[in-house]
């Protein structure tokens, strides 16, 4: 490691130590003071490990050339794939922990985790063994019959949630295949409840969501995502959706007796890593109670340990809890699965035949998810996420100071971070990739960082140094 980079790593670790003593994180997301001791204890080994993986400010991972294996692969198969994504030319092949390799043999530090999915990293051997054993035993049965793993997963989700400061009304779970489907289920459940509740009826079908949110791309979840880029090609949207400003208490008057549901992300991930304030969420809960509207927390990206809590809304006041909580992404660590957890009050409105799914709750996905939830809900594991957050905070704040005014703000908690720029962020994403680090964009000119939750301190230091080199290269 060069002298300059060694000094940078020491400064990041020292900054994390200071931050642990006096956190400047978003209200409600304070980090345990024990992180100071952890960073002091691990500093020497972390910086030594980082020295083995430091990238100098040169291009180390070139995008595949036109005559490469990757380019030949893309040319052969792209004509058969519907083009809905703009992708760089690399073809990913394998992964282990927080690293990924492409078919050219180039190694990347993964700070995307498959868009906050691979919480336990790549190539988890215990999970792979579970997949293998269950695939030999049974993959799918349909929901015409019980299987051995859907029930235990639902029980585990409810019990581990009740053991937190989160949703204390958690009672039952509907298992789906994805986050969008979990939100679709939540919206359907809320509309059914609205028709049956005292004072409800056919008029009580409106749904309120918030600007800058992202709830999915199916027609219902898309209707709750007020972004013209996503909505306009498929207009008109499903009737009955209204939009309010995030964190604007005065704007909550849009919620009326005709509102059956309000859906909100405690942390807007796709929107740019923005946090709902405790005051706003408390006022929102009160408003929903006044008109008997179902409050849905979309924790598809923020949940299952990403914030340092099992559920991000644990950081809110005790009275600010949801009636329905949706989750997906990290739930299967890459195996498609989603879930909507509901209170008993909502559950009583749903009858046999009201909703269904062919693949949702299959024994393969639910056995994997059972393993994942057990790991991610471990208090010691969650404490480690909180501790590692301060290393990120310190490193990113130093980059902000060094590259001002290009970096205008750092937002984050746990292992979800947004680096706000004063310009379009793709150049930084590209420069980081060419130096062996994968990051993604979000919102308006934001670089989003969502590494696997198992990321090591040395890997955090390595990633910060590559980001430093990426900014310096432009």
From TrEMBL:
Its main location: mitochondrion. Pfam families: Aminotran_3 (PF00202). Its cofactor is pyridoxal 5'-phosphate. Keywords: Amino-acid biosynthesis, Aminotransferase, Pyridoxal phosphate, Transferase. Pathway: Amino-acid biosynthesis; L-arginine biosynthesis; N(2)-acetyl-L-ornithine from L-glutamate: step 4/4. It comes from the Eukaryota. One of its GO terms (biological process) is L-arginine biosynthetic process. Its EC number is 2.6.1.11. One of its GO terms (molecular function) is N2-acetyl-L-ornithine:2-oxoglutarate 5-aminotransferase activity. PROSITE patterns: AA_TRANSFER_CLASS_3. Residues 1-10 have a biased composition (Polar residues). CDD domains: OAT_like. NCBIfam families: argD, PRK01278.1. HAMAP family: ArgD_aminotrans_3 (MF_01107). This is Acetylornithine aminotransferase, mitochondrial. The lineage of its organism: Eukaryota, Fungi, Dikarya, Ascomycota, Saccharomycotina.
